Amino acid sequence: MMNYNFFALVSRMKYIERWALMRNSRAENLSEHSLEVAMIAHALCTIGNVRYGHKLDADKAAVVGLFHDASEIITGDMPTPVKYYNKDIKTAYKEVEKVAEEHIIDKLPDDLKDEYRKIFFKDATKFADEEEKEEEAYMRRLVKAADKLSALIKCMEEENSGNREFRTAKEATLKSIEELAVSMPEVGDFMDEFLPSYGKTLDELE
Length: 206
Prior knowledge:
The protein is mainly alpha-helical. The chain has eleven helices and no strands.
């Protein structure tokens, strides 16, 4: 019987540290970040379904969140200022990410690869109609929003610990999220109802 390396490779996310260019009071690894993105993405989709009449696949959003940065097992965490320095670097890095993701998927048995491509790649799913396609696209936008919310939470935690290193990152991330909330009310709801609790102590959360 063949042995496949996919899950052993993915498990190495816990060794990838984020925020490499920043002085951290507490290091954050890719596994922690991915779990948080998955939970927030699921919440955003659930809010969208319950409050705004969407038909979003919240469970799939959570899984997409879990794997959204899996390519960094191979590429490492590329700092945002570098990744988005200019259009050419951004385009080149997207290509590198895609090659890395295909390399990871190639570690699966052949009969499972297409199912995982539907998680990794937005264009790999076939849709019954245009509405379903639009809902999938909106779901993936909410996963990206969850990614930014997770980054904001990290900035808040660092600031609350007395580390001013993340001050400008917090300001930039917050501005980006506020812009997203204009067209995605789920994001605004999460910020209003859940984000303030992240600054509380354990006793205050009881």
